[in-house]
Amino acid sequence: MTVTAAARIGAVRDRAGGTSLPVLAGAGPVALRRTRAAREGWARVTVVGAMSAPLGGDRLRIDVDVAAGARLTVDSAAATVSLPDLAGRPAFYDVRLTVAEGAELHWLPEPVIAACGSDLRMHTRVRLGAGARLVLREELVLGRHGEATGDLTSRLTVEHDGRTLLDQALAFGPGAAPGWDGPAVLGPHRTLGQLLLVPPPALPPDVSLPPLTSLTPLAGPGLLLTSTSPRPAFSRTAAALTRA
């Protein structure tokens, strides 16, 4: 049995200067919980997996709308593990993030793990208004411990004030084009982390990048960090940049 489910989050600025959540609707395996925010004036939502998903054939979607002046953090309670089905069908996971002018969103899910035999196709679409702020983290893990990876395709499309800021696609696994595990791409590494910051911060002088990590200024108000280092090293660098 396959699952088709869409979850929605809507955040607005309230009269007291904080952020309220008039829309918080989970569906199927995507359960949403309001959790305690670390900073005053912010709201926080944690995505909780209500069942094993995505499985082959599933179609999951999350829509997040942050209205002007609102500030929202979305994280997850655990990693997302893509699993195969007996028919070998792909699973689809779409994320749509809309951040209005003067609003701020921190999208910080736990890693996505492509289990052996699975085929996951992800697409994250982001629309940012003028003056919107975004911290977006994506971590991809190819295979569980001691196993080969499944197929994993991830596309990230970001639009800022009506113009394309970033549009990239990554494909890994046995179904990807030859060379994905060659020295020019991942080599022997099986973890890829990305952090997108809009607008780009002023880099603190004490930030040290781990090996195989790059900082790429975008042709617009953004900075992209990409790393194939182990997750702890990536997380420390990401935390330092987020505080900048």
Automatic annotation (TrEMBL):
Q: Name one GO cellular component term.
A: cytoplasm
The UniProt entry, under Pfam families, shows: UreD
Question: Localized where?
Answer: Cytoplasm
Primary location class:
cytoplasm
Enumerate the UniProt keywords alphabetically.
Chaperone, Cytoplasm, Nickel insertion
Q: Which GO terms describe its molecular function?
A: nickel cation binding
Cite the InterPro entries for this sequence: UreD
Instruction: State if Nucleotide-binding is listed as a keyword.
Output: no
Entry keyword Cytoplasm? yes
Which superkingdom? Bacteria
Q: Which family is annotated?
A: Belongs to the UreD family.
Q: What does this protein do?
A: Required for maturation of urease via the functional incorporation of the urease nickel metallocenter.
Q: How does this protein assemble?
A: UreD, UreF and UreG form a complex that acts as a GTP-hydrolysis-dependent molecular chaperone, activating the urease apoprotein by helping to assemble the nickel containing metallocenter of UreC. The UreE protein probably delivers the nickel.
Record-given protein name:
Urease accessory protein UreD
* Gene field: ureD
